[in-house]
Write a structure and sequence with these properties.
Elements lengths: L6 H10 L6 H13 L7 H11 L7 H18 L17 H22 L8 H15 L8 H26 L14
Helix pairs in contact: 2-4, 2-5, 2-7, 5-6, 5-7, 6-7
């Protein structure tokens, strides 16, 4: 993610708009939606975000622009061949309980976004099905407030697993590639 979309800055911006979810949750929701096929600039995406993240109210133009920019950047980073996608979480120096709460919010929001577009797991690859099932289990975990070296290592492993799982979901369900035998559509 670009530095313009860092956790603290987005948390501040979203709070200024009285958004119900936090910055990690918004990114998780957008990621789940985009990884399953939602278009970043679509009116449908904004309608879903209005319902899920803005209490069904009309999203102000400035906030809509910010969300669309973030959605576009998420889509770009999910498809990045250099594996550039990163979860939007508090900085590593923040207390572990704060980071764990943001991580739990990200997972729950990703699953909410995922569920909007993908109601059946029957057609998923075995790897993606396992990743989604793992996310469901992670969403149920109640994190302790102890922050030793082992917990820090586990946190980083979970973050990396979720990062790769989101990219795998996008590759399997969200990527819009033009078939090799079909030329791109040209609008006149």
């Amino acid at each position: 993610m670009s530095t313009r979309f860092n956790y603290d800055r987005l948390a501040e911006l979203y709070a200024g708009y009285d958004m119900t979810p936090g910055a990690s949750e918004i990114q998780g929701m957008l990621t789940g939606l985009i990884a399953t096929g939602s278009e970043p600039k679509s009116d449908e995406l904004m309608a879903v975000l209005s319902d899920l993240a803005y209490d069904g109210q009309s999203i102000p133009t400035e906030l809509k622009n910010l969300l669309q920019q973030q959605a576009e950047e998420i889509e770009h980073s999910l498809g990045d061949h250099d594996l550039g996608f990163r979860l939007l979480l508090p900085e590593d120096g923040e207390p572990l309980p704060e980071r764990l709460n943001a991580l739990a919010g990200w997972v729950n929001a990703f699953l909410a976004g995922y569920g909007v577009n993908q109601q059946s797991m029957a057609t998923l690859s075995a790897d993606l099905k396992e990743a989604i099932e793992d996310m469901v289990e992670l969403a149920k975990i109640e994190f302790t407030e102890e922050g030793g070296e082992e917990e820090e290592r586990a946190y980083f492993e979970i973050v990396e697993y979720l990062r790769v799982s989101a990219m795998m979901c996008y590759t399997e369900l969200g990527r819009k590639e033009q078939p090799a035998n079909q030329p791109p559509k040209i609008l006149h």
